[in-house]
Amino acid sequence: LEVLLLQTFPPALHNSRLSAMSTPTSIPDPSTLVNTRMRLKEEPPAFIRFVGTLPKRKATYVGVQWDSAQRGKHHTKVDNEEIFSVPKRQNADSTSEEDPALAQSSFSFLKWTTLEAKIENQLQLLEQQKGADACHQASYSDFPVHYDIQRTIGDAVQERYMVDIRDGKVEWRDKTQVELVGMQQVSQRYFHRLDRLNVVSVNHQGVSRIGNLKALATSLETLDLSCNLYSAWEEVLKIFPQAPKLKILMLSGNRFNDWDKLPQLAKEMRSESEALPFTALDTLVLNGTMAHWSDAENLVEHYFPHLKEVHMCDNFIEHITHESGENDAYWEHMEHIDLMNNKIASWSDVQTLAHLKSLQRINLRKNPVQSIQAPSEGEFPQLRSLSLEQSQILKWSDIDALHLFPALSDVRLQGTPLEKQNGRATTRMFTIARVAKLTSMNGSTVSKRERIDAEKYYLKTCADSKMKDLKYGTFDEKKFAVLHPRYKELSLVHGNFEDFVQKEEQKPTAMKQSLVHVLIKNMSSTVNDATMHMEKKLAPSLHVIDLKKMCQRKWKLPVHLQKLYFTPDPEDLFPEELDDDNQEISFFGVRSGGVILMEERDLDKEKREAEEKKRDEEERERQHREHLERMDREKDF
Is-contact 220 213, C-beta < 8 A? Predict the structure, then answer.
């Protein structure tokens, strides 16, 4: 009962030790807001960089630096006169002199009277609500303007989760009433137990100050401060002396002005007898903060030496400037590095992490990584999971390099040029065959049966290639060994497939008997031919690409514009697409009596669908990430 009640009615919401909510009582002096954060409803967050008049204009304007490159239409100049300058960081992680935070920003000049009117409406609403129950007050997240009112974590917790208990009835903000027998006595016994609260999520709540957390944070382990108005690490670091058990801190979407001051700030904190380093924290989430890799180095070295996970997605990082040797000692606990959707193109950057002895997972999804280098002895000793989805991996030699990682068992290669060139099925089978320790690929388990089938298929393909080269006198033993480094090893396990290929070639009668009789129909509306179908006897080993070439010779429709489908029943409304040019037609179940349909691709339609699919995937990914960061962290509520 105690656990159930504590999960259903968070204890912190019923304790008088939390201070009253910080609410503004008057319109602020706009000059005090310079270099603070703000957010307008349904707009991206922004820095306020300037307050004053503009040339040839009498009104007061607010110069805004949006976090989005698409939002603003102005720059820092008006009539060729520079109105304000924006702090520019020296980017040690980039070959470009351009600051990614500036490159992904845009600027606007907003009339102060417009913002002032919105703030005044908010103040009037707050004044009207003073006598109302907390459950009947408007939520702060509904206000049209979020600006720095020195709102604390405690304020946001009270406002976001407040419930009202009267006469055994519990009333939530949506005015839903639940009557519980003996509720008054239970609340007196349990709801003051602040030391039980270990998860707090106040994302998107306009919080800019830490405040007094001692009553709230005795057992706090997870704190989500994503997408708030923090702009200074000096403020954020005030959390740790008050929350000594904090393990997970999420700061995604906050933009900081003082990244370069982290080393100096650490010195000052030590001189003031602060308890540095903060060893309890093991997970730090910095997605979309425009942090450089060097910022992560500073945080680990000076503040959080026991970090196990660091998430730095969407930060436009081009290089990993980790210096092996002395710095590795600060990273000895690191297990998971998430660098999704950055700009890392060279494996040499990833190689700088090779001596982190505890590193188990690296996420490089949506990075333009072009190649993989095999590790030297002692490198990546514990790495077991590597995500390269939507990277630029193209060569099989890069997959062969993965085989040499001592512990690698989980790989993701979806959306790579290699997969697009060879098809999903072939890429999966060849990767499984080439990487011996692989137990999971693209999130799907590799079974023993699948491994055996993949390795045999790979051996047969290699043997076919070898026998053709021998037949035409072009076989090169050394080149073959480089292209297929596991061929001999797998031949010892599954047998010599070269003999099998030779025997198959010596059985023309058997081949003739195994031909499949199919009807091929031309369904293209743009191809005019007297004969819109043809009957063919096809070898089951015929590749889809060769079948397309056959159709091209007959109907003059280029191979790249063809889409082939097979159905065993002409009445079937859902034929199967032959969507892998490198597969044999037998792979798709093509058999005698069936029909192959040739349709013409609509490239414009496919382009639109691909763009729409990409947008949908990005939106689902964003929603999923928010769900994980928001809902999963609020489970104790």
Answer: yes
Q: What's the one-letter identity of residue 289?
A: T
What is residue 493's DSSP assignment?
Answer: H
| Per-residue confidence (pLDDT) for residue 629, from 0 to 100 | 67
Q: What is the mean pLDDT of residues 489-511?
A: 72
Highest mean pLDDT among 12-16, 27-31, 450-454: 450-454
Contacts of 526 (CB under 8 A, 6+ apart): 600
Listed as own residue / partner, the contacts of 165-168 with beta carbons closer than 8 Å and 24 or more positions apart are: 165/14, 165/191
Task: Note whether 41 and 122 are within 8 A (CB).
Answer: no
Bridge partners (DSSP) of residue 108 are 64
In terms of residues, how long is the chain?
Answer: 637
pLDDT in tens, 407-422: 999 999 999 999 999 9
Predicted structure pTM score: 0.73
* Residue 541 identity (one-letter amino acid): S
DSSP string, 371-391: ---PPPTTSSSS--EEE-TTS
- For 5, half-sphere exposure in the C-beta direction (CA atoms, 13 angstrom radius) is 18
CA-to-CA separations, 443 to 320, 399, 439, 575, in angstroms, rounded:
26, 17, 10, 27
Q: Which residues pair with 144 in a beta bridge?
A: none
Q: What is the pLDDT of residues 615-634, one digit of tens each?
A: 888 888 888 777 766 665 55
Among 228, 221, 75, residue whose Cα is nearest residue 141:
228
Gap between the Cα atoms of 153 and 34, Å rounded: 22
